[in-house]
Write a structure and sequence with these properties.
Elements (H helix, E strand, L loop, with lengths): L1 E5 L4 H12 L3 E6 L10 E4 L8 H4 L5 E4 L12 H17 L5 E7 L8 E3 L10 H19 L3 E7 L1 E3 L8 H10 L4 E3 L6 E6 H12 L6 E5 L4 E3 H11 L5 E3 L13 E3 L2 H12 L1
Parallel strand pairs: 1-2, 1-4, 2-3, 4-5, 5-7, 6-14, 7-11, 8-10, 9-13
Antiparallel strand pairs: 10-12
Length: 278
């Protein structure tokens, strides 16, 4: 397929574009800058919000994978609300064109405070501006896709584990601190349980989902099981042989973080099973 990927130069975009290319797709990758994008892709550096007709500008893609989003790790940034109309206008233009499918990256922060397994029909009560904006964009995109009779997939992402210092996750920050010679990393109690998934598995699940049309709607990109944050990070430090220790209790738990939350992996397991059987 010919797939347009927005936000392709970002932390997620780089790996997802590479995986889509490995699957044999033709990828048009766009971002404000393109220096980290796989050279096999057709790269276009631009501001997607300033393009009048993105469908024609990006040479008539069949599928659009919308990853673009700024300040994703700054949950209370006002940019989430400020940028929401821009995302709406871009997706409206795209869905009113001749594309086959719209796919957008979401977040488990759409749910808000919840304990247990998140399913596609789990009620959403987001507690920060990031979650509120993503939740609103999901509802908007669902309506636009239905109005224009195109397929819709919403990829609800969970916590990514990666040993790269490129990025803003706690794992990236720990690697970066260790590379700088920092011996102690300030931390909370680490007792909350989350759904952790490796970067490579995350990219594989996204690429596999985009590559098929049978399973649509909200799809959890996840491992499907809870793990204590402290145990996950201690194991991460050990496996990567980092000379750094956690300073427990330096920070309080965030009030909007659930005690135990993970994704239902029924849909993604079916997608991956179909892929592996081919």
């Amino acid at each position: 397929m010919k797939i347009l990927v927005t936000g392709a130069n970002g932390y997620l975009g780089q790996g997802i574009v590479k995986t889509l290319l490995n699957y044999g797709h033709n990828v048009i990758a766009t971002d404000l800058s393109t220096q980290y994008i796989d050279k096999r892709a057709i790269s276009k550096a631009c501001n997607i919000f300033e393009i009048d007709n993105p469908y024609l500008y990006f040479n008539k893609p069949e599928v659009v994978l919308h990853l673009a989003w700024r300040n994703g790790f700054v949950h209370h940034s006002e940019t989430h609300i400020e940028d929401l109309p821009k995302h709406y206008n871009f997706i409206k233009k795209i869905t009113e064109s001749n594309i086959h499918k719209i796919v957008v990256m979401g977040s488990m922060h759409e749910i808000g405070f919840f304990e247990g397994s998140i399913q596609e029909n789990t009620p959403c009560h987001p507690l920060n501006l990031y979650g509120i904006s993503k939740n609103a964009l999901r509802e908007i995109t669902k309506i636009l896709a239905k109005q224009n009779d195109i397929l819709f997939q919403w990829l609800r992402g969970y916590y990514i584990v990666d040993n790269s210092s490129f990025g803003n996750s706690i794992f990236s920050k720990i690697v970066s601190a260790a590379e700088k010679g920092v011996k102690e990393f300030p931390f909370n109690t680490g007792q909350n349980q989350y759904d952790f998934i490796s970067y490579s598995s995350f990219c594989e699940q996204v690429a596999a989902t985009v590559s098929q049309d049978e399973i649509t709607g909200i799809i959890n990109i996840c491992s499907g099981k809870p793990e204590k944050l402290a145990e996950c990070i201690e194991n991460f430090i050990k496996v990567n042989k980092l000379n750094i220790h956690l300073q427990y209790g330096a920070f309080p738990e965030r009030p909007y973080d659930s005690k135990a939350i993970w994704g239902d992996n029924t849909k993604i397991n079916k997608i991956m099973k179909q892929l592996n059987s081919k």
